[in-house]
Amino acid sequence: MTLSRYFYNGIRYFLLMRLLRLKFYDGDIEQNKLRKSDMIKKLSFLAGAIALTISAIPFAAQAQINSSEQTVVAQRQKRGEWKNKLNLTDGQKAQMQEIKQSARAEMQQILTTEQLDKLEAAKASGQKKRAVWGTLNLTDAQKAELKKVRESKKAQIEAILTDEQKALMQEMKQMRQNRRENRSQAKGLKGQGKLKRLNLTDAQKAQMQEIKESARAEMQTILTTEQLDKLEAAKASGQKKRAVWGTLNLTDAQKAELKKVRESKKAQIEAILTDEQKALMQEMKQMRQNRRNRG
Predict the structure, then answer these.
(1) For the chain, what are the domain ranges?
(2) 133 or 23, higher pLDDT
(3) What gap in Å lies between CA 38 and CA 46, rounded to an integer?
(4) Cβ distance 265 to 211 under 8 Å?
(5) Which of 14, 35, 90, 105 is the most exposed place for a label (fewest CB within 10 A)?
(6) Is 249 in a helix, a strand, or coil?
(7) Rounded to an integer, what distance in angstroms lies between the CA atom of residue 1 and that of residue 10?
(8) d(C-alpha 19, C-alpha 37), whole Å
(9) Where would I find the H helices in 21-139?
(10) Are 241 and 166 contacting, i.e. CB atoms less than 8 angstroms apart?
């Protein structure tokens, strides 16, 4: 007997037992039979619907687990592509596996239990490593030790590669770097598209760039090293700025200082715009606000 059938029979039996206890005060026996028959049909339908809903719950949960597992598998396959391109020998593969396992064991000794749990949870859910490491709140000592482990791992891997494989690995590394830069530039161009509507002059563009860089430098002096690392990790993983800033645990003093920087930046930008550009900027700001409210 299937799970859904089991639930169906159980619920139907319970509801029918309840039905038998109902009292009908109509003197017409045939009418009472019709009422009972109609009631039985409705209760049977209800029992079936409830059983179907209950039996569907574990399948929905399993579907979610399968989706997460597929994400993890896809990421592992993507990470393994570069090994195939290098045409490693069986001996090199075995050596590389030993080097990685040794490095992993060293890293686990450096991290706390809480940090290791975070990494395991992120790995299981298919999150990107770069984004997760930025949330571990590593101490300066941990960062220094982890850097040594990574450098040692890199040197050991390069030592087992041929000159041709090293050149190919450097080429692939550069390609990954270029992709990251292209994504970053694409995001920048998306922001610049909003400014194109303002028809800024070259002088205004230069001034605006200086204002933004100055504000960014001021903000960096306000934030801690840990908070800056979180922002960098989030930027690299493509997270939205608004969501990341909410996770920085800013103090009231930091919030006040950052507010001053933003207000100063806004005032300086408005000072270099014409009245027409200011009105257009206000209009675009209102449109963004309306989209957020609808979302």
Answers:
(1) 3-73
(2) 133
(3) 13
(4) yes
(5) 90
(6) coil
(7) 12
(8) 10
(9) 29-86, 90-110, 113-125, 129-133
(10) no
